[in-house]
Design brief:
Strand order of the largest sheet of chain A: 5-6-7-10-9-8
CATH class of the largest domain in chain A: Alpha Beta
Number of helices of chain A: 7
Structural class of chain A: alpha+beta
Oligomer: homodimer
Number of strands of chain A: 11
DNA sequence: AACGATAATATGCATGTACATAACGAGACT
DNA sequence: AGTCTCGTTATGTACATGCATATTATCGTT
């Protein structure tokens, strides 16, 4: 019987085990790729692949010539899934609904202007909408769109298609920022979300650009009880 | 002059450009690795590396034999940095402070028991602490530790070292969960964080295991104004 | 002692070849 | 028609080799 095949995944697993078991302490220099390849009986490229994955995950730090070290602070990186709300709701087994609350062209507040990096007070398209799950409010969306970057959006029937869904499908972005925070519900928002004024809302604010052209700023407010979960 | 070298990064960039420019539409099948390698004048492995990165980022979906498709919904993945609070504060230029508020052994509430997957009502070590930035409350930490998994923690002087820092350095975990949410401050928490009762707090709840042994459950509450930001 | 050129070294990347594996699809058989 | 098998095909992985590049260590000169 030939020896069990050594894949990069098995090297990955073994190195991970040594880190977790503290066989290799945080900060320690681990053997170089050539030596590990010899130890595991595989090619250097295989070891390299495994170590690269671990470095990407933040458990190792690698520098040319300096070698590979176990990360001092197991940099905890969590990858959040940021789904389109439509899919988020259906993934939970709910029926998605959508209602446009307001649509106007107006001057954005300072917060939006600065987030988008717009100096002049150009008017933007202001959209307010409600996402529903099984008829119940799921998230309130307050959005400002730069019509110069997305002129086609002006012709879309936003009563039927959410700006969210349309933008995701039709406007690629090259850069984006996400800010998560919490805030209390004001009277308007509380009424829309059918919660009490003063309730704690979970906020997700996204800003997106293509190149250096700002596309949209959006704040989604989730009623009390909403949770954003991820594995570490 | 020799032709410009074709690295996986340049292939990555060009494929990304074709996706963003909608030259390759969402859902479309893109040429196979061999053809792309011929087009770009590089080895198949180089194309493969580039496409793998894009698939990891969620922009492509790849299946053996079926080929590589542009993702229908550009799955937006955000990688959050979950720093140790100590470093988070110092990264902002603040001076870190820490105060232990309470330490006891007690039966955990149902929420903690179920999060940790503990059936029996074994007593856990209950720690409450405050993280400070320049003397001001930064985050309130409510933690339950399974002493069976971490007996050594009982001998640590938790007045001086935060359980957070000690655990990160001394107890590796194999699995963890992070839940972000919002809640209003109750009277106790408000007093500790020096905010008003009813203010919206940003909550981060973490649960960690080694193997199937639960280690700790912790909820960190951040006062109003706290933001968790990430690039997309 | 301070500084600068140079050699040594570990990772990073590209290539060609080979084989493994998953999945689609055509054709055979019931 | 249904379904089962098997060949085809595209991705996934492994390996040996070679060169590139960043960084450190060393040795020399001033």
């Amino acid at each position: 019987m030939p020896p069990a095949p050594v894949g990069w995944q098995s090297v990955h697993a073994e190195v991970l085990r040594r880190i977790r078991s503290r066989e290799w302490l945080p900060g320690a220099l681990i053997p170089n790729e050539t030596d590990l390849a010899a130890e595991f009986g595989c090619a250097r490229a295989t070891v390299s692949r495994a170590l690269r994955e671990l470095a990407d995950a933040g458990l190792l730090t690698r520098r040319r010539k300096a070698g590979t070290h176990v990360a001092l602070n197991p940099v905890r990186k969590a990858t959040l899934q940021i789904p389109v709300i439509h899919e988020e709701i259906e993934a939970r087994g709910g029926t998605y609904g959508y209602a446009l609350i307001g649509r106007e062209t107006a001057q954005p507040p300072l917060q939006v202007r600065s987030a988008l990096g717009l100096a002049a007070a150009d008017p933007l398209l202001h959209l307010r909408a409600l996402h529903l799950s099984d008829g119940a409010p799921y998230a309130y969306e307050d959005r400002w769109v730069n019509p110069q970057a997305v002129p086609a959006l002006l012709d879309v029937d936003l009563e039927r298609v959410s700006a969210n869904a349309w933008l995701v499908r039709n406007v690629p972005y090259t850069r984006g920022q996400l800010i998560l925070s919490a805030a209390t519900a004001d009277a308007d928002t509380a009424e829309i979300l059918r919660c009490a004024p003063g309730d704690a809302l979970f906020l997700a604010e996204r800003t997106t650009w293509t190149g250096d052209r700002p596309i949209t700023w959006v704040r989604q407010s989730y009623p009390p009880g909403h949770r954003l979960a991820t594995e570490l």
